[in-house]
Every structure is written in C-alpha cells, then in structure tokens.
Amino acid sequence: MSESISFKAYLTINQTKEVRRFVIDKETAFSFDGLVEKVKTVFPVVRNKLVKISWLDEDGDDIVIANDEELAIALNELPGPVYKINVSTVVDNDCGDSKGGEEEGENHPGVVCDACGAD
After folding, report:
1. CA-CA distance, 5 to 24, in Å (whole number)?
2. What's the DSSP call for residue 46?
3. Could you tell me if 24 and 35 are in contact, meaning their C-beta atoms sit under 8 angstroms apart?
4. pLDDT number for residue 76
C-alpha cells in the first residue's frame, strides 16, 4: 500500500465555511495541479470555478499556493501529519483573473487577458 498525505481543507464561500478531510498519494502530493483537482473533487461546488488555495504561516499570514514550488514550501513548513489548507473561489471581472486592474470592470482596449485570452 502506498503512503498518503492527509489534508484538512477549509472552504469559504459567501461567508459559509465547510471543512473536509482527504488524502493524496505521496507520489503526487507535491503536484499543485493534482491538489487543485482533488479539492474540486472533494468540494463539488467549486468544480467549475477558479480556486485559491492558501495556508497560515507561523506569523498568521495567509500564504497563497499557486504552483508546485509553493506547495512544497507549504508542506515543509506546515506541521503534519494533517496539513491544513484554506480554499476559496476567485471572483473577478469576467475571466476570474485575480490580477485584474485596480478598478472593477476596468477595460484596456487591445490588451489580451493572460488568464482567459479575452480582449
């Protein structure tokens, strides 16, 4: 039997919190895409949404995980054996890109969005 890593995920949507526990095989536990896929399986309400995954560091700062390296850092820094992560949906103008302009609905003619490819 392969080893697995246990997570406790806190999903917050519209000020409602839901908590779930799940495991991921140790071989794939350091894959950010694999973690996102598992989160979307565990929380079906976010299946078709962009999600933000984060964790609280020792200073109480909410640290965002956006790639394999940041996931590895989180797993190294978090106390185990159950790794606590926070999950929320990313809400933004049209495409869900969390790096949008300063003003909601800001439009830049001729600029293509990196997240969704829209003009």
Report:
1. 5
2. G
3. yes
4. 94
- Distances in Å between the Cα of 73 and the Cα atoms of 26, 32, 55, 67, 118 are 15, 12, 10, 10, 33
- What sign does the CA torsion over 97, 98, 101, 104 have? positive
Within the chain, where are the H helices?
32-42, 68-77
Please enumerate in sequence order all residues whose Cβ is within 8 A of that of 44, keeping only pairs 6 or more positions apart, or say none: none
DSSP output for 13-37: ETTEEEEEEEEEETTTTT-HHHHHH
* Both tokens assigned to 38: 């598992």
Q: What is the pTM of this model?
A: 0.73
Length of the chain: 119
| Two structure tokens written together for 97 | 């890109």
pLDDT tens for each residue of the chain, 119 residues long? 468 999 999 999 888 899 999 999 988 889 999 999 999 999 999 999 999 999 999 999 999 999 999 999 999 999 989 999 999 998 755 554 444 443 345 566 666 666 565 55
SS3 state at 55: strand
